[in-house]
C-alpha cells in the first residue's frame, strides 16, 4: 500500500511539473511577445519624431545640432547606438566617437543604403536595425535592442518557476496526507484487526490432506498438519467439496477463522499475490476491498452474510461458512471472469 501511494505521488509530481512548466512558458512567451511589439513600436515612433531634426542638421552641415540629436536618440530606452553611413557603408558620425570612419561590410547595412526608403530589418529575435535615407548618399541607422527587457522577463520566469515549484510541493504534501488518511490508515486498521483474530495453534489431520488432493481439486496447495481444529476444518472442506469444488472457478481460496489460507488457486495472481498456506489475508493480497470485507465477516462471525463484488473483470463472492451448530468456521472466496 505504501508503494502504491508513492507511485501515485510520483505520477502526480511528473504530471504537475509538466503542466506547470507549459503554463509558465505560455505566460512568459505571451507577455514577452505582447511587450516586445509594443516597445518596438514606441521606439520607432520616438525615432521618427527626432529623425527630421537629424536630417535637417545634416543637410545644413550643422555639426553641433547633428551630434546633439544623434546623442539624443542613442540615449533613448532600448536604443543601443545611432549613426549615419554613406553609400560605401562608412560611418560619417556615430554616438560613439571611437567608431567614426569605421566601415561596415555586413549585408544588412548594404541593404539599408541600397533601399531608398525607410526600412526595418531583424538582426536577431530581439534586435532590429532602423534605417532612413537622409539624402542620395547618406543613411541614418539606429540599432534597437530589447535585450534588457528580455532579461527582466527571464527574471520574471524564474520567479514563476519558484512559485509553481512551491505550489507543487504543497499539493503533493496534501495529496500524500489524504492518501494516507483515506487509504493507508483504513488498510492498517483492517490488518491490525485481522491480526488480533489469530487464535491458538490448531491441528489438522492427514485425512484433510487426502481430501484436498481429490481429483476435483486440480490445483490444490499442500496442507500442513498444524493449522486448525479437526472438526471445523472437516466441515469447512466438506462444505467446499459439496458446494464449491464441483464448480469451475478462476479464483478460489479457503480461509480459516483467523483468515489464514487453507487452500488457494489463483493462477494469474489476480487477487492473491502470495498463495502459501498459513499466509494471513493481509499478506496474501493487497486488495483493500477484499481485506475490508473479510474483516467485516470475521467481526460479524455467524451473523455474516455472503458478499458479492465486481473488480478486475471478476465477479467475486466472499462466503462465510458456519457449521451445523451455526458457529463460524471459515470463509470461502471465489471469483470468475466476466463473460467466461
Describe the structure.
The chain has 8 helices and 10 strands. With 340 residues, it is an alpha+beta fold. It has 2 domains: 2-149, Beta-Lactamase, CATH 3.30.450.20; 206-337, PAS domain (Beta-Lactamase). The protein has a 5-stranded antiparallel beta sheet, sandwiched between helices. A 5-stranded antiparallel beta sheet has the order 7-6-10-9-8, sandwiched between helices. The longest helix has 58 residues, at 2-59. The two termini are 30 Å apart. 25% of the residues are buried.
Set down the secondary structure blueprint:
Elements: H1 2-59, H2 63-74, E1 79-86, E2 91-94, H3 107-114, E3 119-124, E4 127-133, E5 138-145, H4 147-196, H5 206-212, H6 230-243, E6 251-255, E7 261-265, H7 281-284, H8 288-300, E8 307-311, E9 314-322, E10 328-337
Antiparallel strand pairs: 1-2, 1-5, 3-4, 4-5, 6-7, 6-10, 8-9, 9-10
Main attributes of the structure:
5-stranded antiparallel sheet, Beta-Lactamase, 10 strands, about 350 residues, alpha+beta, 2 domains, about 20% strand
Amino acid at each position: 500500500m505504501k508503494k502504491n501511494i508513492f507511485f501515485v505521488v510520483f505520477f502526480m509530481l511528473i504530471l504537475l511539473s509538466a503542466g506547470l512548466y507549459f503554463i509558465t512558458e505560455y505566460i512568459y512567451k505571451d507577455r514577452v511577445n505582447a511587450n516586445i511589439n509594443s516597445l518596438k513600436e514606441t521606439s520607432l515612433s520616438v525615432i521618427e519624431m527626432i529623425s527630421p531634426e537629424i536630417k535637417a542638421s545634416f543637410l545644413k552641415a550643422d555639426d553641433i545640432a547633428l551630434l546633439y540629436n544623434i546623442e539624443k536618440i542613442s540615449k533613448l530606452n532600448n536604443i543601443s547606438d545611432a549613426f549615419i553611413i554613406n553609400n560605401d557603408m562608412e560611418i560619417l558620425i556615430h554616438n560613439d566617437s571611437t567608431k567614426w570612419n569605421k566601415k561596415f561590410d555586413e549585408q544588412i547595412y548594404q541593404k539599408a543604403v541600397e533601399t531608398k526608403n525607410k526600412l526595418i530589418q531583424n538582426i536577431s529575435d530581439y534586435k532590429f536595425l532602423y534605417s532612413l535615407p537622409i539624402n542620395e548618399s547618406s543613411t541614418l541607422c539606429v540599432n534597437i535592442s530589447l535585450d534588457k527587457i528580455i532579461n527582466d522577463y527571464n527574471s520574471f520566469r524564474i520567479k514563476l518557476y519558484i512559485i509553481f515549484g512551491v505550489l507543487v510541493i504543497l499539493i503533493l504534501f496534501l495529496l500524500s496526507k489524504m492518501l494516507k488518511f483515506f487509504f493507508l490508515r483504513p488498510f492498517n486498521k483492517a490488518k491490525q484487526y485481522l491480526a488480533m483474530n489469530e487464535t491458538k495453534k490448531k491441528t489438522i489431520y492427514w485425512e484433510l490432506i487426502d481430501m484436498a488432493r481429490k481429483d476435483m481439486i486440480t490445483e490444490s496447495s499442500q496442507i500442513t498438519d498444524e493449522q486448525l481444529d479437526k472438526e471445523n476444518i472437516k466441515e469447512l472442506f466438506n462444505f467446499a467439496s459439496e458446494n464449491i469444488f464441483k464448480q469451475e472457478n478462476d479464483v478460489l481460496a479457503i480461509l480459516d477463522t483467523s483468515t489464514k489460507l487453507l487452500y488457494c488457486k489463483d493462477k494469474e495472481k489476480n487477487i492473491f499475490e502470495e498463495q502459501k498456506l498459513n499466509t494471513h489475508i493481509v499478506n496474501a493480497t493487497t486488495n483493500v476491498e477484499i481485506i475490508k470485507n473479510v474483516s467485516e465477516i470475521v467481526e460479524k462471525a455467524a451473523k455474516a452474510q455472503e458478499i458479492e463484488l465486481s473488480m478486475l473483470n471478476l465477479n467475486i463472492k466472499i462466503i462465510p461458512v458456519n457449521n451445523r451448530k451455526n458457529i463460524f468456521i471459515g470463509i470461502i472466496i471465489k471469483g470468475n471472469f466476466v463473460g467466461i
